[in-house]
Amino acid sequence: MRRVHVIVRGEVQGVGYRYTLRMVAQDAGASGWVRNRRDGTVEAEIEGTAAEVDAVLAWMAEGPPGSVVDSAAVTERSPQHAVGFDVRPTV
User: Fold this and answer.
1) I need a labelling partner for 19 at 20 to 30 A (CA). Which of 1, 42, 90, 91 fits?
2) What residues form the catalytic site here (predicted)?
3) Over the stretch 51-76, which tens digit does the pLDDT of each residue have?
């Protein structure tokens, strides 16, 4: 299992990024969560097999139509065996 924490910068709020990410993660078989931050970034944690996480990270680097991803900072974390994928409130 692999778990990563990701901060995505760019034009990533107001473009359906979080809800599309949830669908992409679910389709890939990954678990975790995503939320907007008040500084305009999107924060997420993704957990699954290496292949599942890599597939989600590849999508996150591009984002949905209408978004502009400037960067995605990825930090490895210890797996927590998360179940499901949530869209959390803004922090």
Assistant:
1) 1
2) 18, 36
3) 999 999 999 999 999 999 999 999 99
